[in-house]
Design a protein that fits this description.
- Helices cover 18% and strands 27% of the residues.
- It has an 8-stranded antiparallel beta sheet with strand order 1-2-5-6-10-9-8-7, covered by helices on one side. A two-stranded antiparallel ribbon has the order 3-4.
- The chain is of the alpha+beta class.
- Strand 1 and strand 2 form a beta hairpin.
Length: 180
């Protein structure tokens, strides 16, 4: 009888560890194993030398860079960029604008060779919904865009005319009302 109580207690203890570990597992913030992206959302890039990355001029409160090996087709006198299939990273402070640091807070993907959890910018909205629902996301249908939300992270697949974009962003708070 005493052995059964000990075994039952041990079983409950081990079960609770698995339950709490599963709840703490943040699938979306972990960099997907199937991606070739250099950086992932909320990644600290304070020590990254961006001198080999093509910058996009004009963002207040942060910086934007093309992924390594990408650059615009052309830039006119007014700094308007024509983007080929590419990856663009947005770098800002995180989790709040007042916190400082350099973190990846946005990723824009138009290169169909880049995959996130098996989804590319050429995937169907139905495949997108199924994949991210299976990862525990809520899906919002906004017509030509679908948004998967998990905690502070949003992943969107958008299709406008012939242009398809896969974006990933994390919510950055602005607790002190900083105006850029």
């Amino acid at each position: 009888m005493k052995v059964k109580r000990i075994l039952l207690s041990l079983l409950l203890f081990i079960s609770s560890i698995f339950v709490f570990t599963g709840c703490a597992n943040d699938k979306i913030l972990a960099k997907p194993e199937d991606t070739t992206l250099e950086f992932w959302i909320a990644q600290d890039v304070s020590n990254v030398d961006f001198s080999e990355y093509y910058p996009i001029i004009g963002m207040f409160g942060g910086s934007q860079y093309y992924g390594k090996g990408y650059e615009p087709i052309s830039v006119d006198d007014e700094q308007v960029y024509i983007h080929p299939p590419c990856v663009i990273y947005t770098i800002t402070a995180y989790p709040d604008y007042a916190d400082g640091g350099q973190f990846v807070t946005g990723i824009k993907i138009t290169d169909p060779q880049i995959s996130i959890y098996g989804i590319t910018c050429n995937s169907t909205l139905q495949d997108f919904d199924k994949t991210f629902e299976n990862l525990g996301c809520t899906i919002q249908d906004i017509g030509s865009s679908h948004v998967a939300t998990y905690k502070k992270v949003k992943i969107a697949l958008s299709s406008y005319n012939d242009s398809k974009t896969l974006t990933v962003c994390v919510e950055v708070t602005n607790n002190y009302g900083i105006v850029f």
